[in-house]
Amino acid sequence: MASESQFATLVETNAPFIRISVFEHSSAHSIENFLDGEAHIRMNNGDEFKFAVVFKKLHRKESLDIFIQQKDSYCKDIKLPLLLICSPLTPFLAEYCENNKINYIDTVGNARIHIAGLHIMIEGKKPSHNLTYEGRRITGITEGIMKLLFVILSEPTMLLTKNYRQLAGLANISLGMVSKSFYYLTQRGFYRKTSTGGRLISVPELMKLWLKEYAFVIKPKLKGVMVICTEQWENIPMAEGDYWGGEVAAAKISNKLYPERLQLFTHQALQQRLAKLRMKPSKNGNLWLVSAFWGKGFELNEQAKVMLAIAELLASQDDRNIEVAEFLDEQYLRVEKTIITPN
């Protein structure tokens, strides 16, 4: 299934109008085994089209001929239009698909899709030196990888109990990003597949990576609004899914910090939450109301709350906050002090 997931990642990157779900096969020599997933194409006008998906690595006309034979055998049983997702096609193979009325998208973004109400033709895109069908060459950690790490570092047993689709929902990322994230972690020796799922390797170093990169990868992309808060933070009514971050989170966990700058994560629309709080926006406010970056279905456990508190304290670059971050680490995460202290 690895190649299918990598194909999905590449196509979603190079053809952002499409979203792909990859099936987990359970039977052989059946239509369920022939089909690899489903794809949704959403146009700018809001129209959405659904496809049955087959993944193929193609280099020769003969491989396409086999696909056509399989398609003809199963086509009568497929209710959705069929979409081939494949490795980059040569001009000859692209023309062969056109002549045989094969709807396709390759991993560099070339596409030919003609069904009732939808006509897409994209050609001329070529693979770059950093892009192959096996997987994208990744030079640094991304927001999506960090979001997934927040979930699985807080509860590593999820690697044994949750599938890719469930992890995507918990981390608030696409299915393709889950595949990309595990590719990144595997290439760097942080993840290993097992017969029962997978496990994280060198967790202290991985925790170090997450805590330090949070300030550069996640925090700058948080969406929020500064407001004036005249209430004591303890008296602010919490909505379902609200979580305190930063100094308040540290104060709740340790009682070693009097919060001066407040941060509240919420899953509600910011304007809606702001109206309920009856607080006034101001760039000089003392409370930062922030959209939660994790999925609504992810309930933060003690580990997640500590991770979030430490990451925000480190990102503040405040000596007082960094001292509390070190205390929280010693009490809960037990990452080496040389790791938790910023370079």
The proportion of residues in beta strands is: 15-25%
Number of helices: 14
Low-confidence stretches: 24-30, 129-139, 338-343
Number of domains in the coordinates?
3
What does this structure look like?
The chain has 343 residues and is α+β, with helices and mostly antiparallel strands. The chain has three domains: 2-136; 143-215, Orthogonal Bundle (Arc Repressor Mutant, subunit A); 223-292 and 300-340, no CATH class. It contains 14 helices and 16 strands. The strands form four sheets. Strands 1-2-3-4-5-6-7 form a seven-stranded mixed sheet. It has a five-stranded mixed sheet with strand order 13-14-16-12-15. Strand 4, helix 4 and strand 5 form a beta-alpha-beta unit. Helix 5 (143-154) crosses helix 7 (164-171). The chain is elongated and about 70 Å long.
Ordered list of secondary-structure elements with their pairings:
Elements: H1 2-14, E1 18-22, H2 31-34, E2 37-42, E3 48-56, H3 61-74, E4 82-86, H4 91-99, E5 104-106, E6 111-115, E7 118-122, E8 131-132, E9 135-136, H5 143-154, H6 158-161, H7 164-171, H8 175-187, E10 191-194, E11 197-200, H9 203-218, E12 224-228, E13 243-245, H10 246-254, E14 262-266, H11 270-277, E15 280-281, E16 287-291, H12 302-316, H13 319-333, H14 337-340
Parallel strand pairs: 3-4, 4-5, 14-16
Antiparallel strand pairs: 1-2, 2-3, 5-6, 6-7, 8-9, 10-11, 12-15, 12-16, 13-14
Keywords:
343 residues, alpha+beta, 3 domains, 7-stranded mixed beta sheet, 5-stranded mixed beta sheet, 16 strands
